[in-house]
Design brief:
By secondary structure, the chain is an alpha/beta fold. It is built from 17 helices and 20 strands. The strands form 3 sheets. Strands 7-8-6-9-10-11-12-13-14 form a 9-stranded mixed beta sheet, sandwiched between helices. Strands 15-16-20-17-18-19 form a 6-stranded mixed beta sheet, with helices on both faces. Helix 6 packs parallel to helix 11 and helix 6 crosses helix 12. The mean pLDDT is 95.
C-alpha cells in the first residue's frame, strides 16, 4: 500500500479504522463521507488523511488505486460503479485488514445470533488461555486489530453480508454459519443475492479449515457443502450421528461413537431457548481450537448475554420488560416471541427490511395479549397481524412502551422485538435499545412514587 492512492468510503467505525491503518502503512488516503462531519478529524488529518465530506466526488473514486468500503455503504452507489468500470479494485474493510493479520481468523455469520456467538466464543478461548481479539461487525473493527496481531492470535470476527459481499482473499480458519432466513432485502436485491453474500464466508477455505454449521437449517447445510472445509455440525434437535448435540443435560461432542461432555445446560443463563444454539456453536469452535470443557463451562457460567439481545431490563410490579432491539428481522423476532409462554405484549415495527411478518401470526395467537406497532411499518404490522391479535398503533416510542405496559398488566411481558431496522426513529438498534431502557426506568420511577 505504500504510496498507493486509496479511497475509504464511509466514516463509521470500520472506515475510520481502515483509514488509519492505511495511512500508517504509507498510503495516500482519502476518506469520503456523505455526512458533513467525521469523528476524530484532527487525528486523521495529522496522519495525512484527506477528508471529503458532505458527498462523494466521482474523481476521488476513479482516480484511486483501491477503494475500501465500510459495511454501511451500498456497493451500487454511482461513484463506486464508476471506479469499477475503470478497473479500480473495490474491497471490504475486513478484506483489507485480513491481508495484514498474522493470526488465524474465526469468522461468524448468520441471520441472527452473530453477536452473542462471537462474544461467547471469544470468552471461551480467553478462559482457555489463548490470545484472542474479538470484533468485526461488533466491537473493534478488524483493521484496528492488525497492530496487535501475532501468529498465535485468534481473531474472532462477526461478519455481516455487507462485509462478506466485498471479500476477495479473506480466509477463515474456522467459519461459522448459525442460520439463514430472508433479511436486508432493503439492501440486497433478492433473497438469492443475500444468500450468495453469506455463502462467501466459505469461499476461500480449504481442506485444512473447518466450517461449523447448523445441521437443523437446510439452507446453511447446502451453502456449506459447496465449500472445501471440513464440516463440523451442531444440532439442538439431535438429528446428527456426529457433531455437537444435547444429551442428558449436556452439550456434548459426539464423535466416532463416543460422546465428550462440553458444557452443562445448567451453566447457561441466557433468556430464550434459541440461544442454546449460539452456545453450541461457540462450544464447537472451542473444541476445534483445543479449549478444555472446564474453561468453556466457566465462560458460559459467567456470561449473561449482550446488551439489546434478550436483555431483561426490569420487573415493575409483576410485569417484565425485555430488550431485544437487536431483533431487526422477522426470524429474530419470531425466536424472541417463542421464548415466552403467555401474556406477551411485543413492540413491533420500524423500517421494514423485508421478510414475511405473517410468520409471527401463530406464535402471537398462542401467547400474546396484544401487539403495539411503531414506526414506518405500522400499517404492515396491522395488516399482517391485526386479524389474529389486537394491534395498537402508537406515534411515539414512549407512548408505545406505556401502552404495552398497561396491556401487559398484571403479570405479563413487554418485549421489544421490532422485526425491523431502527433508522426511521433512531440512529441504530443500540440507541433504540437504550431509549427503551430509559423509558422503562422512567416508568419504574413513577411506580415508586
Amino acid at each position: 500500500m505504500k504510496d498507493k492512492r486509496v479511497t475509504v468510503v464511509g466514516a463509521a467505525r470500520s472506515g475510520l479504522a481502515a483509514a488509519e491503518l492505511l495511512a500508517r502503512r504509507g498510503a495516500h488516503v482519502t476518506l469520503s463521507e456523505a455526512g458533513p462531519t467525521v469523528a476524530d478529524d484532527d487525528r486523521l488529518r495529522a496522519l495525512g488523511v484527506a477528508l471529503e465530506l458532505g458527498g462523494h466526488v466521482t474523481g476521488t473514486f476513479t482516480g484511486a488505486d483501491l477503494i475500501v468500503l465500510s459495511p454501511g455503504v451500498p456497493p451500487e452507489i454511482p461513484p463506486v460503479q464508476a471506479a469499477r468500470e475503470r478497473g479500480v479494485p473495490v474491497i471490504a474493510e475486513i478484506e483489507l485488514a485480513s491481508r495484514w493479520l498474522r493470526g488465524r481468523v474465526i469468522a461468524i455469520t448468520g441471520t441472527k445470533g452473530k453477536s452473542t456467538t462471537t462474544a461467547l466464543t471469544g470468552r471461551m478461548l480467553e478462559a482457555a488461555g489463548f490470545k484472542v481479539t474479538v470484533g468485526g461487525n461488533i466491537g473493534a473493527p478488524l483493521s484496528a486489530q492488525v497492530p496487535d496481531s501475532t501468529p498465535d492470535t485468534f481473531h474472532v470476527v462477526e461478519t455481516s453480508s455487507f462485509q462478506l459481499e466485498q471479500i476477495d482473499t479473506f480466509h477463515p480458519w474456522i467459519s461459522v454459519m448459525l442460520n439463514f432466513s430472508p433479511d436486508h432485502l432493503d439492501r440486497h436485491p433478492s433473497v438469492e443475492a443475500y444468500a450468495a453474500a453469506k455463502a462467501r464466508i466459505f469461499t476461500n477455505q480449504d481442506a485444512g479449515d473447518f466450517a461449523v454449521v447448523n445441521a437443523d437449517d437446510p439452507a446453511v447445510l447446502e451453502m456449506a457443502r459447496r465449500g472445501r472445509a471440513a464440516l463440523r455440525a451442531f444440532s439442538r434437535a439431535g438429528s446428527i450421528a456426529e457433531g455437537t448435540v444435547v444429551e442428558r443435560g449436556w452439550i456434548v461432542d459426539r464423535r466416532r461413537g463416543a460422546a465428550t461432555n462440553l458444557v452443562p445446560l445448567q451453566a447457561i443463563h441466557l433468556l430464550g431457548p434459541h440461544l442454546v444454539n449460539d452456545v453450541m456453536a461457540a462450544a464447537t469452535v472451542g473444541a476445534i481450537a483445543g479449549a478444555a470443557p472446564s474453561a468453556m463451562t466457566a465462560a458460559v457460567d459467567t456470561f449473561r448475554g449482550l446488551e439489546h439481545a434478550m436483555e431483561l431490563v426490569a420487573e415493575i410490579g409483576a410485569v417484565r420488560f425485555v430488550n431485544d432491539s437487536k431483533a431487526t428481522n422477522v426470524e429474530s423476532a419470531l425466536r424472541s416471541i417463542e421464548s415466552f409462554d403467555r401474556d406477551l405484549v411485543p413492540i413491533v415495527g420500524g423500517r421494514f427490511k423485508g421478510g414475511d411478518l405473517r410468520l409471527l401470526r401463530d406464535p402471537l395467537k398462542a401467547r400474546a395479549k396484544a401487539v403495539v406497532a411503531i414506526g414506518e411499518a405500522r400499517p404492515l404490522v396491522r395488516v399482517a397481524l391485526g386479524d389474529v391479535v389486537p394491534v395498537y398503533e402508537e406515534d411515539t416510542f414512549a407512548h408505545a412502551i406505556e401502552r404495552a405496559h398497561e396491556l401487559a398488566k398484571p403479570s405479563g411481558v413487554v418485549l421489544l422485538a421490532p422485526a425491523c431496522a431502527s433508522f426511521d426513529m433512531f440512529r441504530d438498534y443500540a440507541e433504540r435499545g437504550r431509549t427503551f431502557k430509559e423509558e422503562v426506568q422512567r416508568i419504574r420511577e413513577m411506580a415508586d412514587r
